[in-house]
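User: Write out your own:

AI:
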Amino acid sequence: AKQAGANAVANVNGVPVDSATNELSGVIDGLTLRLRGASATPVDVDVSPDREAITEAVKGLASAYSDLAKYIGEQTKYDATAKVGGPLQGDSAVGSVLSRLRGVINNTTGASATFARLSDVGLELQRDGTLSVDSAKLDKALGNLDAMKTAFTNSDALVPANEGFARRFSTLATDLLAVDGSLTTRSEGLRKLITQNSEKQSRLEDRAQRYQARLVQQFTAMDSNLARLNALNSYVTQQLAGLANSSSS
C-alpha cells in the first residue's frame, strides 16, 4: 500500500524539530545532524574539533600563499643571462601586492596574546618569499583552539590592529579585487591601453595601405610614362636615322 511521505521528526536538547530531509541544519550552530533511523532512547552526540582538517587548512593557506609568491617572483624577475625582464617587472601595482601580503604575515595582531604572530602557530616566512609550516608549532597551537580561532577570525572594525590574520587576508583580497580594487583598476587600465593600441595599430595599417596604394598608382603612372618615352625615343631615333640616310643619298 502507498503511504504519504512525512517530515523527519526529532527532539534536540528538549526542543522538537522537523525537517523535509534526513538532515537537520541550523538546530545547533555550526553542526549538521544526519538522521539514520528512529531511536526509542536518547542518543548522545559527541562533538570534537577536527584537528586533521584544521591542519590541512593551515597547510593549504601556506601552499596558496607560496604559489602566489612564486608566481609574482617569476613575473617580475630579470633574467641577466637573456637580458629579458618578466612581463610585470617594475609594475608598482604588483610590488604593492607582494608588500601588503608580507605585511599580513609579519605584522602582529592584538587579537590574541598567545598567538600574536603567525609564526606562533607555525607559519613562517622563508627567505625565498614562500610560507612554510612548522608542524611541531602547529600541533602545539592546536592544543589551544580558542586562542588560535581568535588569532585568525577576530573582528574589530574600530581597531584594525586587533583584526585576526584570516580577516586581514580577506580585507586585503577585497581591497585588491573589488570593483574599485587596485588590481581590478590596474587590469582595466591595461585593457584600455591594449584597446587603444589596437585602434592605433588599425589606423596605422590603414594609413600604410593607403600610402602603398598611392605609391603603386604613382609607379604605374611612372611606368606608363616611361613606356611612352621609350616609344618616343625609338620613333625619334628612327626618324633621325631616316634623315641621315636621306642626307647621304
Summary: The longest strand covers residues 23-28. The beta strands are 8-12, 15-19, 23-28, 31-34, 78-79, 84-85, 123-125, 131-133. The two ends are 138 Å apart (CA to CA). The helical segments are 51-76, 92-106, 135-141, 145-153, 165-177, 182-248.
